[in-house]
Amino acid sequence: ALHFAMVRWLGAKEEGETVTKCLATCNPTGYIDPHHEMYTVIPMRFLGLFVFLLCLKPAFGAAETMVLAVAPGGYPPFLIAVPGKPVVGIMADVLREIATAQGLRLKFVETPQMRVETTILDRQVDAVPRAKEWVSQPDRFLFTDSVLRLRDVIFSRAKHPVLFRKPDDLIGKTVGTHLGYSYPLLEPFFRSKRAYREDAYYEKSMLRMLQAGRTDVVVMNEAVGLWLMKTEGLTGQFIASETELEGYEYRFMMGRQWSKFVTQFNRELAQMKKDGRLAAIVGRYHQIPDAKPAIR
């Protein structure tokens, strides 16, 4: 980038108008007078470097890109991926606001969830929304402070509700689960065949299986389940348990090369929690209980 800038501006040696316009643009305060005699004094071999340094952006280079992994189909309302449209959602909007302020561009890449850790370690992608509890070796990565505290609950059909207060309440039930996900509190029941696991790849598919009676209940993030009920025409068909199965802090997991950005992210996130910007982002997408800004 430096070589290109130097060559470009040295090539403008005979084009004084172009050079002075750039200088005036780079310093719009008017502190530099493009008609001042200093411009006839500065050796041309230094002019390119002068302009380049004057136009530098803080924190990160203007062209630097952060790549965020997005699961196929997204993870609404946190990541909403619609073909042909920008990725939005609570986590996307939070990261976009903070990254843009640091001079970074965001790029979203569809990545199977079971490959996310490998792709971050290989630097194919840089970040993904994650809870530490989902990661087998969290020390290999960096984690931001928590953006939201969320919880997994039990959904059942409104016409055949299942009262859930403890894992024993699922004995004898067929439980809809997400392919590749681990449920520590339920694994002993699955291994001993006291409850039965039925996997699906998408949350939407899990609810459709429950609707069709192929499962008795599903384990799902409460915010995701309520969002799908609202957007897929399923309002009133399912109920969510008041008791959570598990709760966790939702944050960003990043490659260790992003340590400087993580520090800046945490500082700005704390300010967003104080001044209401985080609550405003959450409010764009739902009025879902227990998806409130987390306390650090």
The pLDDT mean sits at 82
Give the class from helix and strand content and strand pairing: alpha/beta
The helix content, as a percent range, equals 25-40%
How does the major sheet shape up?
8 strands, mixed
DSSP summary, beta strand count: 10
Describe this entry's structure for a reader.
The chain contains 11 helices and 10 strands. The protein is of the alpha/beta class and 296 residues long. The strands form 2 sheets. Strands 3, 4, 5, 6, 7, 8, 9 and 10 form an 8-stranded mixed sheet that branches. A two-stranded parallel ribbon has the order 1-2. Helix 7 links the parallel strand 6 (174-178) and strand 7. Helix 1 (2-10) crosses helix 4 and helix 5 (90-101) packs across helix 10 (259-275).
Write the SSE topology.
Elements: H1 2-10, H2 16-26, H3 38-41, H4 44-54, E1 65-70, H5 90-101, E2 105-110, H6 116-121, E3 127-130, E4 142-143, E5 148-157, E6 174-178, H7 187-191, E7 196-200, H8 203-211, E8 217-221, H9 222-231, E9 238-240, E10 246-254, H10 259-275, H11 277-283
Parallel strand pairs: 1-2, 6-7, 6-8
Antiparallel strand pairs: 3-10, 4-10, 5-8, 5-9, 5-10
Helix pairs in contact: 1-4, 5-10
